[in-house]
């Protein structure tokens, strides 16, 4: 009788280990669904390039969102969509429409060019397709 109880406990322990391992694998796979692309690092890099490039700084100061969008599009990893917005520093500028997925947002204040002090904020919204 004791041998049967010991066997049942071993089977119960084995099933619980398999269940826990399955849940952990499921969670790990879901968290790694962005194919190894760290969107926060990507957005910081793009915003840093915009801040360091004189023509892109001028585009931000002049509200030229098309130039910024074209630049971001050349740097965008495949499988992702984006939207860029330029607004005043104190303005709340959000994404233009609702997207039912996880979105990463990065922003940077561009305060001036050599000729013009007119601070603006550039925001980049990135999400998976």
Provide keyphrases for this structure.
alpha+beta, 129 residues, 4 helices, 2 domains
Give an overview in words.
The termini are far apart. The protein has 4 helices and 3 strands. The longest helix is centred in the N-terminal third of the chain and has 30 residues, at 2-31. Strand 2 and strand 3 form a beta hairpin. It has a 3-stranded antiparallel sheet with strand order 1-3-2. The protein is rod-shaped, with a radius of gyration of 24 Å. It has 129 residues and is an alpha+beta fold.
Walk me through the topology.
Blueprint: H1 2-31, H2 39-52, H3 54-61, H4 65-75, E1 80-88, E2 103-112, E3 117-128
Brief description of this entry?
The chain is α+β, with helices and mostly antiparallel strands and 129 residues long. Strand 2 (103-112) and strand 3 (117-128) form a beta hairpin. Helices cover 49% and strands 24% of the residues.
- Rounded to an integer, what's the Rg over CA atoms? 24 Å
Q: How many strands, which pairing sense, and closed or not: the largest β-sheet?
A: 3 strands, antiparallel
Percentage of β-strand residues: 15-25%
Could you say which structural class the secondary elements and strand pairing correspond to? alpha+beta
